[in-house]
Write a structure and sequence with these properties.
It is built from eleven helices and twelve strands. The chain is an alpha/beta fold. The two termini are about 25 Å apart.
Length: about 325
């Protein structure tokens, strides 16, 4: 059975559209769970309860996407779990196209083709990529949909905005890191799945329209600090020791380039504060790295990330037949 988990906080208009599309196109064996992450006056609960068959997990205080997503996953019962942002609208057949890949026990996650709302001509995400210098990104983001993205293929990870996950794999490696709040929590999970020997697949026949973080509002200084901290955490938490040492020169170059860009944008201070927060996170970081060793089966992360980056440029990504 498929479980659809929709964390939400404040955009009730988006939530209604999201639920309407999901319930209209969902397969027969499916449950839908809305996690009301402390919405004002419980508005999200009221909206969700207007839809027949939708379960609600209500949190009194806002905890952020990772915590809300984990609460929904724990309340769900499906062997496959899909996380949906409340600003997405699934398209016909999206679930069936993705679920078929889980027939392969090595597959732990499937990324749909997320297209920017409303016309679906521009890509939001075709799976996630990662550069070992410490850069996480969405494949194809901002590009017009083209033949390059019309074949299923392996990817580094999937975006939690609409990603499908195998429950047993999540139970093995753990859920989203709740200390992250929001942003890059899906990249952290992708690393753990890769370290445990699992694969992630991109499936273009599974399509979702995405408003593009419309539910989060404008980016402020606090959000920039949080994003910066989480991106730095991912690098230090997850790269294997030998890879980490070899990647440091590249990582320092990446940080220098980002610092210059942030200076030009006038956001250097919150960006720096976010990076420096990782120092205080050192004990938790070391505990996480020790836990990784308990289930690590694959440490070719460096080669895989570089392959993903290079093949994305050339378009020579091996298609899945």
């Amino acid at each position: 059975m498929l479980s659809i988990v929709i964390p939400t906080h404040r955009r009730m208009d988006l939530l209604r559209a999201c639920l309407a599309a999901a319930l209209r196109h969902a397969p027969a064996e499916c449950e839908a769970i809305v996690v009301d992450d402390g919405s004002p006056g419980g508005q999200a609960t009221t909206v969700a309860q207007a839809f027949t068959g939708v379960r609600v997990v209500r949190r009194e205080r806002t905890g952020g996407f990772a915590l809300a997503a984990n609460a929904g996953i724990r309340a769900s019962s499906g062997a496959i779990v899909e996380l949906l942002n409340d600003d997405t609208e699934v398209q016909p057949g999206w679930a069936e196209a993705a679920i078929r890949h889980f027939d392969d026990p090595a597959v732990a996650a499937v990324a749909p083709l997320a297209l920017l709302w409303p016309d679906g001509k521009v890509i939001d995400s075709a799976g996630d990529r990662y550069d070992i210098g410490g850069i996480a990104g969405k494949r194809g983001h901002g590009e017009l949909l083209s033949e390059l993205y019309l074949s299923a293929c392996p990817v580094f990870g999937v975006s939690a905005s609409s990603g499908f996950y195998r429950r047993s794999a999540l139970e093995e490696v753990g859920l989203f890191p709740e200390s992250f709040g929001s942003y890059f929590e899906d990249v952290d999970l992708a690393f753990r799945l890769r370290r445990a020997g699992y694969q992630a697949i991109y499936e273009p026949a599974s399509r979702v329209l995405h408003h593009g973080s419309a539910s989060f509002g404008r980016t402020g200084r606090r959000l920039i600090e949080q994003q910066s901290c989480n991106e730095e955490r991912v690098f230090w938490r997850n790269l294997p020791g030998g890879v980490l040492l070899r990647s440091l020169p590249r990582h320092l170059a990446v940080l220098a380039g980002k610092a210059l860009r942030r200076r030009d944008e006038g956001t250097l201070t919150p960006w720096l504060l976010g990076r420096l927060r990782v120092v205080g996170d050192l004990p938790a970081l070391l505990r996480h790295r020790r836990r990784l060793r308990s289930f690590t089966k694959c440490e070719d992360v460096a080669e895989w990330c570089v392959e993903n980056r290079i093949t994305r440029r050339s378009g020579k990504i091996p298609a899945i037949q």
